[in-house]
Amino acid sequence: MKLYLLLFLFASFTLQAQSVFEKEVESITKKYDTLYDASKESIVFTGSSSIRVWKDLQQRFPDYQVINSGFGGSQATDLLQFTNNLILHYQPKKVFIYEGDNDIQNKKRPKEIISTLVEIQNLIFKNNPQTQIVLISAKPSIARWKLRRKYKRLNRKIEKMTLTDGRLSFVDVWKPMLDGRKVKQDIFVSDGLHMNSKGYEIWYTALKNYVN
């Protein structure tokens, strides 16, 4: 009886989580229904909330049609579920992905995260073999500093993954966000996890050459 109850609770939680993401994904697609121009080349930035709350992405890269399809709280498996809606629908020439941050927090192993990123990569290449994929390293943060070794291990595996294919690139945002051996304190909002404008300036500097 206890087993059935646990299975029921787990299934209910999973369905509730999916429902939350479905609503957010629907909101994103509705937004870009009016903004997206299929006649122009597009660049997609997607992943978890560090992408979602980067509000001035389009202004940072005014020469491109930028799609910000980040959705808060997501893990790599969530992006895999919505790859068609959040990436392929926009036929991007480049895709920037930030996943792994929440995965590590939720006790997923780097090997498991990499496996999911490979699945996402394969879907993108199946849709268009010429697409360029840029994987953004997990970032350091005040709130999750105790997990830094796991994040660094994940980043090494992501970088290694990108060496297998010329269409893949790795951007390290970990080191630029450090002050010596500690994470910079003045680049986050009050929760110690999400970045302020100083944090995004670091990301912009790290990413701009990959956009251009």
TrEMBL record:
InterPro entries: Ester_Hydrolysis_Enzymes, SGNH_hydro, SGNH_hydro_sf. Keywords: Signal. Gene3D superfamilies: SGNH hydrolase. The keyword Signal applies. It comes from the Bacteria. Residues 1-17 form the signal peptide. One of its GO terms (molecular function) is phosphatidylcholine lysophospholipase activity. Residues 50-202 form the SGNH hydrolase-type esterase domain. PANTHER family: SGNH HYDROLASE-TYPE ESTERASE DOMAIN-CONTAINING PROTEIN, THIOESTERASE 1/PROTEASE 1/LYSOPHOSPHOLIPASE L1. This is G-D-S-L family lipolytic protein. It comes from Zobellia amurskyensis.
